[in-house]
Amino acid sequence: MSKNTIAVIGLGNMGLAMCQSLLRAGFKVYGTDLARDQCKAAQALGVCVIDNIPQLCVATDVILLSLPAVQHVRQVILGEQGLIHLAQPASLIIDTSTSEPAVTRELAEKLASKGFSMLDAPVSGGPAGAAAGSMVMVVGGSKAALARATPFFAALCSKVVHLGENGSGHAAKLINNLLCAAHLISTAEAISLGKKAGLDPAKLLEGLNAGSGRSAISEVNYPRWILNASFNSGFSMQLMRKDVGLAAQLIEQMGLDLPLSALVTSAWGDSGSQIADSEDFNAIVKTVDGGAL
Asked: Domain 5-166 classified CATH 3.40.50.720?
């Protein structure tokens, strides 16, 4: 099997953008998705679109998953037409979703029993970073599997951090997204306070971003998607609420009492009455008086 081929299952915002970077790097990319519109968009980019997973497995032995939630990952891997039954011998499965570490370890063990390798490799950077090949990836899995995946990751990411065994990448991503969720609220409150004190939000951010209070939210999200009220990052409230919920679940599993994290997860959960699942995740700032604009 050629080392220059890869398949992408899930051609949504992230999957499609990753296809762009892989194609630009010279890889032959196969793809499939249940949504016909997404398949058409992928085909227009140069992706070799295949109707179903069985046919996809014939084409390549490196398969990247870009799926919304853990139940979709489980179905694609273990379902009746799943990869565990149909993938070529010694295939490598790369899960770039944000998922549950315990489930990831379970799936990795079942795949390993059939001779397959798995990496949990969730990403940060959103669709823009995926299309630019500038994402950050936190990875769980064996060093051998990571070495095999490295040429593909080089096309997708500016930085790859290997954290250890399967499940480690997904644990790190949940922690990252919990921090992101907290920073959105805390930065919105800081902007609200500044406005009340007579400060211009853009100038305040300029000062904060030169000091110790800065974060990716203040440096990127506020200038790019919040101050201009565009709210079009490509990542939804529904997905972020799911990730924050998984982070809360991980905290509980670890037996920790983290009061600030509890406040953050509660705020995101309660926001459903104000902000629809379909809205951009940056819209959480609208729940803070004066924090959005």
From this structure: yes
